[in-house]
Amino acid sequence: MREITYSEAIREAMVEEMRANPSVFLMGEDVGVFNGVWGVSNGMLAEFGHERVRDTAISELNIIGSGLGAALVGMRPIVEIMFGDFLMCAGDQLVNQVAKARFMSGGKANVPLTIRVASGAPGSSAAQHSQSPESWFMNVPGLKIVTPATPADAKGLLKTAIRGEDPVLFFEHKMLYALTGPVPEDPDFMVPFGQAAIVREGKDVTIIGVGIMVQKALAAARQLSSKGIDAEVIDPRTLVPLDKDTLIKSVAKTGRVVIAHEAHRRSGPGAEISAILAEEAIECLDGPIIRIGAMNVPLPYSPELENHVLPNENDIIQAALKLCGKA
Amino acid sequence: MREITYSEAIREAMVEEMRANPSVFLMGEDVGVFNGVWGVSNGMLAEFGHERVRDTAISELNIIGSGLGAALVGMRPIVEIMFGDFLMCAGDQLVNQVAKARFMSGGKANVPLTIRVASGAPGSSAAQHSQSPESWFMNVPGLKIVTPATPADAKGLLKTAIRGEDPVLFFEHKMLYALTGPVPEDPDFMVPFGQAAIVREGKDVTIIGVGIMVQKALAAARQLSSKGIDAEVIDPRTLVPLDKDTLIKSVAKTGRVVIAHEAHRRSGPGAEISAILAEEAIECLDGPIIRIGAMNVPLPYSPELENHVLPNENDIIQAALKLCGKA
Amino acid sequence: MRTGPEANEMKEPYESDILAEFFRRMTLVREFELRAIEERRGGLIPGFIHSCVGQEATAVGACMALSQEDVITSTHRGHGHLIGKGGDPKYMMAELAARSPGYCNGRGGSLHIADFKLGILGANGIVGGGFPMATGAALGFQMRKEKRVALAFFGDGATNEGSFHEAANQAGVWKLPVIFFLENNLYGEGTAMHRCTPIEDLAIRAQGYGFPGVIVDGMDILAVYEAVREARERAIAGDGPTMIEAKTYRYRGHYEGDPQVYRTQEEIQSWQRKDAIVRFRAKLVDSGLFDDGDLEEIQGSVIAQLDEAVAFAASAEKPAVEDALAGVYADTHNGLVF
Amino acid sequence: MRTGPEANEMKEPYESDILAEFFRRMTLVREFELRAIEERRGGLIPGFIHSCVGQEATAVGACMALSQEDVITSTHRGHGHLIGKGGDPKYMMAELAARSPGYCNGRGGSLHIADFKLGILGANGIVGGGFPMATGAALGFQMRKEKRVALAFFGDGATNEGSFHEAANQAGVWKLPVIFFLENNLYGEGTAMHRCTPIEDLAIRAQGYGFPGVIVDGMDILAVYEAVREARERAIAGDGPTMIEAKTYRYRGHYEGDPQVYRTQEEIQSWQRKDAIVRFRAKLVDSGLFDDGDLEEIQGSVIAQLDEAVAFAASAEKPAVEDALAGVYADTHNGLVF
Ligand SMILES: Cc1ncc(C[n+]2csc(CCOP(=O)(O)OP(=O)(O)O)c2C)c(N)n1
Ligand SMILES: Cc1ncc(C[n+]2csc(CCOP(=O)(O)OP(=O)(O)O)c2C)c(N)n1
Ligand SMILES: [Mg+2]
Ligand SMILES: [Mg+2]
Questions:
Q1: Residue A205: which residues within 8 A CB-CB, separation 6 or more?
Q2: CA distances from A305 to A300, B239, D10 (A)
Q3: C-alpha angle B290/B296/B299, rounded to 5°?
Q4: Which residues pair with A80 in a beta bridge?
Q5: Nearest to A267 by CA among B291, B272, B296, B236
Q6: Among B106, B110, B140, which residue's Cα sits nearest to residue D112?
Q7: pLDDT per residue as tens digits for the range B248-270
Q8: What whole-number distance in Å separates Cα of residue C309 and Cα of residue C57?
Q9: What is the tens place of the pLDDT at every residue in C201-227?
């Protein structure tokens, strides 16, 4: 299969859907003339024009809120939030309008709205340009939350989001944009929500990775195997809905689990995953559920501090070794 | 000791601090002329005048953000957010400014800002006036999060908040405002952050209650005792910082744990508490960690549905019975 | 201030049908509110009510200037908007009573009533929450080249939320077919407008967004109707948004139970003397097109309709708790999202 | 548009000290930016830089009209503001280099530099993030009856965020001693102002908040200085906020590395011909108070100061990872909050 980048995969999903369906369009800050700050929408203005690749004012609240309005009258907006850190500028629209519109209307509102969010720490970008907000809206019923870790998943999950009828927060890790991988060309290739990927099979310890940490978990697993530990790596791919069956099945097999995400440890996505396992699979566990995440401190500018604060491959290795009694 | 309501206890804390310190003042929507939608600031305008009991425009973002600005120049603002549901209107100010001001400045910014938030379901108020946002900002380092469950704690914790140097989200459950209890008159009575209260000792099962669920846990414990189960009820009182030692010690004693909050189950405060226990006390557990919380659906208007969706005393009882093998 | 012609004269000839309908809907709004308040006291309605008694002319006048294909976003004080846009009191009352056949199947209540077929995108519990929704809907219409507009109702208090600013700015840039319709009733909850807004005429804010701001007498339904009709024409012609500020007043508390310490009886009465329904009724009689009997007949039919609505609501089924999780998502991915 | 007098004449007599200081600080801003860009290329500075080259007159003119007790809130493009308000390039450069003695101990970087002693409440990574902070600080001053003001710097793009609206409205109501100082450089990142803002002169938005909006030539430091001085007097006198819109331009990309596909070289050059430093320098020489030698000496001292700052930064210690958790809270409750 041809290989493309995560960024190209996302663009391809958008472009194909926009070609196929005139209701689909893209709007956000600098997505057009500037080609997107992350370059994801590069060239799309040239193909689709200002009508369908819309540069907005710097107004996150209105971007997301008018995405909802457009969805309610039958459009299928894709909106881009340049940095996940800015999501909270539209917090109320997300929590009180977008998430609840369907339910409050007795199930009648249709909200096919995809919110693409560039998240994670791109390096020395400090506290307001580095956050991983994946868990910030998990407590809010009505949103779906997606965290692709590979180019293929990025494309397939984005298509599921755009073609679906519910609002989706689609988190793209900035440091994954350049990652290359095989991506199907079939325009109907879709990755279903709520289906975790077992990206590496193993029997000794389960490593659940979220977003970019899937890549780090795989690297950790390779190193662990050289120490005689056979790690299973699982990518939930969507946090809401969450495929807990696959997670539980894996834990039932290995008896050991490490959960890794770049978000801060406290109340990150790992808290929910851990709590589910502690509620539904505790009898399978041979040891503690270890969570790996950023320390509970705003992301520092200093590269040395930032490195120290962010979770890495070695943190996963150490946790796995500890669980396997080899630390 | 004289008994007063939770609401009076909060007012007393504010009034005493305002009398003692000219830097302390209150602002928010309808806190003055209207005496507060919940009546908490009743009479305060009469005592302190418009200068120090300030009715603001309907602008949550500016209310919280200007609380930060005033704090940075040496004031000690108390701001009121009328419904917790509206917190996200100021989401960005909370997450990116208030929480991070100190850290980003290298520890130099002082942010003595208390944000009082009326939260929880007051009954048939539907999806935008009933939420329990306690966990929404737990992933954001820099905020302290307080959930008083009794009049005395309300007063003592609020004083700690007002006199402290960090921003505090202070969640007042609407259905607790009328709750009566003994409250010390000593103007220096303060309840420290990070110290859980063992509100009932017991040996069979630990029930950790957050906010109003502490009261429901106590009621459940009374009923459980008639079934021969001796429940320990613990109120963390502050979610950030969290007194995990007390929780772990209790679980080490009982081996069984139920966590109850009114927030939705998914990624509510219980997720973090459960994950901590699964990480640090799993060897003490004789069974699953059970979380009780609202179902993952926006709060419905219909009283029947709402009742069904919200957690109650009986849910706690059933969980405890199950853990004790009596269900 | 732009007002309808004085002395109970009509500037332009209106068909008697539409005049009757103006009267009928305003009466229906007024009576609906009074009846709902009564039924709330009686226990049929569990939630709170923000009545729009006094503001009938703005709600009905604005909505009747729209076509059925146009959409509105409404507010916490939305019953008038819903009825104005053609909402059925039966399903409204059933929703207030939290019953299954209510507009939101009992899930939403007064604050969240929506009917997408009628172009009612929803009441809203969040002050200012509907602005971006209206600009987004207008964007959809513009992109599809449909001759439709979105009208956002809002109050004086809502004008101070950031959402107003962001939506108005973007609507101005894109010349979206949207009408920002302000019902300025001088108070936001218990806070008088002059205590939280530094200007008297909020319509001047429109200048900052490059579109016209118009002030109308909100107690004069024809003035409201004409202003909205004109704004709609502008919008449809591609000339962009209009902000309309209608000066009006709510007679009752912010919500039922509000002790109203923030205003005087005299102030309330001074507005009641300008009552939109009373004035319009007199105008109809003076026009010679209607006599008192005609209007009482309309009034009677409205009461009958409400009796029916209440009976319908009271006997309607309550939602079943087994369905508590329904309607959060279109697709539950085999139940996984819960 | 209000501009300084033409033909290199000065309307009012300025002391030569302050004139020299205007020149020195503008030169320092310009040279600081160029040096920082160089050091970033050289690897000393790890993070991104939004330079304000071209906007020296607005930053320095505005800040020098303030007293040291006054405060400012700054933006992502804040180096000029910091230097204008008295910030020390040594600690700024150390912060950009992520070193311990930097303004934020290496935690903040360019986007977050603050110095509470100098009244610098902080640069900001959030567009529009500083507005409420400025109104809040002004509220504190007003409550304590101090003769101090808060000045919020912001860009044309930021004017479309809801935070601007909410802060301006509340400041207008309370007549807070705050100055909303807009550096309108015609672009927000790659989006030209006319593509996201429906009006040309943003200052007219002030009318919607009941306070004056003033337009000045942002390439003329004396015009900026005088406008801010006047606004400050208004504020101190209790007459409330002023919005000042300074028309200016940034010569370099939005950030270093920006390919700038959104504008032409001609446009950039047309603004460079109005360069604030060049024009002011000519004015100083024409005034007879300074000769070229004086000004070159100042320039030389600035370069020397920057050499020193870079040397300081390069040799300064890096933050220790053991201290990674420091500074999140004042009170860690025995370490519990982490
Ligand atoms: C974001 C938000 N803030 C506050 C409230 C509480 N609240 C409900 S209605 C209201 C007053 C609104 O005033 P206005 O916009 O003038 O409308 P009116 O009630 O006068 O019709 C307030 C403050 C809310 N529902 N949402
Ligand atoms: C809330 C938010 N949205 C978007 C951005 C990304 N961003 C950074 S600077 C900028 C442009 C700001 O334009 P303007 O206010 O005119 O300031 P200028 O860069 O021209 O000085 C944008 C969109 C941000 N930092 N914060
Ligand atoms: Mg009002
Ligand atoms: Mg700009």
A1: A224, A229, A230, A231, A232, A254, A256, A257, A258, A320, A323, A324
A2: 6, 26, 51
A3: 120
A4: A28, A116
A5: B272
A6: B106
A7: 999 999 999 999 999 999 999 99
A8: 22
A9: 999 999 999 999 999 999 999 999 999
For residue D22, which amino acid is it? F
- Distance, in Å, from the CA atom of A177 to the CA atom of D128, rounded to the nearest integer, reads 28
Chain B CB contacts of C107 under 8 Å are 126-127, 298, 300-302, 305
CA D271 / ligand 3 centre spacing (Å): 47
Which CA distances in Å does A156 have to A1, A25, A195, A240? 15, 18, 12, 16
Q: What is the DSSP string of B125-191?
A: --TTS----TTTTTTSTT-EEE---SHHHHHHHHHHHHHSSS-EEEEEEGGGTT-EEE----TT---
Reply yes or no on whether C250 is catalytic.
yes
Q: Retrieve residue D210's tokens.
A: 């009941």
Complex confidence, ipTM: 0.98
CA-to-CA distance for B193 and B190, rounded, in angstroms? Answer: 9
Pairs from B248-255 (Cβ < 8 Å, separation ≥ 24): B248/B277, B248/B280, B248/B281, B248/B284, B250/B198, B250/B206, B251/B206, B251/B277, B251/B281, B251/B284, B251/B285, B252/B281, B252/B284, B253/B203, B253/B206, B254/B202, B254/B203, B254/B204, B254/B205, B254/B206, B255/B284, B255/B285, B255/B286, B255/B287
Three-state secondary structure call for residue D128: coil
A-D CB pairs within 8 A amount to 123
Q: Which amino acid is at B216?
A: K
Q: Can you read off the two tokens belonging to residue D258? A: 């920006």
Q: How confident is the model at residue D134 (pLDDT cuts 50, 70, 90)?
A: very high
DSSP B277-310: HHHHSGGG-SSPEEEEEE-SSPPPSSHHHHHHHS
Residues in contact with C278: Cβ distance below 8 Å, sequence separation at least 6, in sequence order: none
Closest C-alpha to A104, from B33, C50, B147, C124? C124
D250, D252, D279, D281: which is the annotated catalytic residue?
Answer: D250
Q: Which residues contact D178 (CB under 8 A, 6 or more apart)?
A: D134, D135, D137, D138, D149, D150, D151, D152, D171, D235, D241
**8-state DSSP, D318:** P
Search chain A and give the residue with CA nearest D157: A58
* C-beta of residue D246 within 8 angstroms of C-beta of residue D184: yes
Structure tokens given for C284:
């109809």
**Residue written as token pair 């004139």:** D19
- Tally of CA atoms within 13 A in the half-sphere of B152 that contains its CB: 14
* Interchain pair C161, D166: CB under 8 A: yes
B-chain residues within 8 Å CB-CB of C191?
29-30, 33-34, 55, 57
Give residue D6's pLDDT.
44
Token pair in block for residue B54: 């300030």
Q: What is the mean pLDDT of chain A?
A: 98
List the structure tokens of B114.
Answer: 């208390």
- Using the structure block, give the residue that is written with the tokens 């080899």: A326
A47 with A26: CB under 8 angstroms?
Answer: no
d(CA A113, CA A111): 6
CA distance C49 to C45: 9
Alpha-carbon Rg for chain B, nearest whole angstrom, is 19
From the DSSP assignment, how many helices (H) and strands (E) are in chain C? 10, 7
Catalytic option among A29, A60, A134, A313:
A60
Q: Whose CA is nearest to atom 11 of ligand 1?
A: C188
pLDDT of res. C9: 60
Q: If DSSP codes are grouped into helix, strand and coil, which group holds residue B54? A: strand
Among candidate residues A259, A261, A148, A264, the one with its CA nearest the CA of residue A196? A148
A129 catalytic? Reply is yes
* D136–B77 C-beta distance less than 8 A: yes
Ligand found nearest the CA of C154: 1
Q: Report the nearest-CA residue for atom 12 of ligand 2.
A: D188
Q: Phi-psi bin for C187: left (phi > 0), alpha (psi -120 to 50), beta?
A: beta
pTM over 0.95: yes
